Amino acid sequence: MEGVGGIDPRAEKVFPADRLELAEKYAAWLADAGVVRGLIGPREVPRLWDRHILNCAVLGEVIPVGVAVADIGSGAGLPGLVLAIARPDLQITLIEPLLRRTTFLEEVAEDLGLENVTVLRGRADAFHGELGFDVVTSRAVAGLGKLLDWSMPLVVPTGALVAMKGSSIETEIEEADATLKKWGCAPPSVSELGVGVLETTTVAVRVVWSDPARVDWPPVPKGGQKGSKGGSRKKKRR
């Protein structure tokens, strides 16, 4: 595949030097198959780097080293595949219900040789009680209230929901007050990421448990499926 006008020079600030080629290949996937299969709009191609790839890569600023991450509603792999490229120390599980999207995610992970990626087909709530993660992330999936219902049952007691959001996040937090209390969450914190790198910085909201000792799920070890040690890229829930 051909590149998308070459790699954005700012990528050197957020991707390790030995992962830049992978980031460029992923951009080519988005600009080609991503558009053809309806995962990315054709008008997004000229701004793939700033609006999508770099925008997602800076999310790594608030994700600890060596943890297990679930990206729910992963779509074209934003931010999940980007994080897998930028942060090879992370174990990334991409959770997506639509077959055409999981097929795309599997093909990209295979082509890029991303051994730290697992693809699961299904809604996030289908894995409640089965899987647990240190970080559960998402991008443009739902308002914070619904996101809490889908994400928090996947967050281990010491983990966090870390979601990419827009400028209306403070309003979303206010509207989700009852849901935050229902789940026993601490007050959310909001971060501005990519300062000095991006033209438009990334906004991320982080939600943790107010009392981790009272969280009694998931009933399996954190970071993976029952009986699994991870590493597979082609696990799907049909």
From TrEMBL:
Main location: cytoplasm
GO molecular function, one term: rRNA (guanine-N7-)-methyltransferase activity
Top-level enzyme category: transferase
One GO CC annotation: cytosol
Described purpose of this protein according to its UniProt entry: Specifically methylates the N7 position of a guanine in 16S rRNA.
Annotated HAMAP family: 16SrRNA_methyltr_G
UniProt name for this protein: Ribosomal RNA small subunit methyltransferase G
Annotated source species: Nocardioides turkmenicus
Gene that this sequence comes from: rsmG
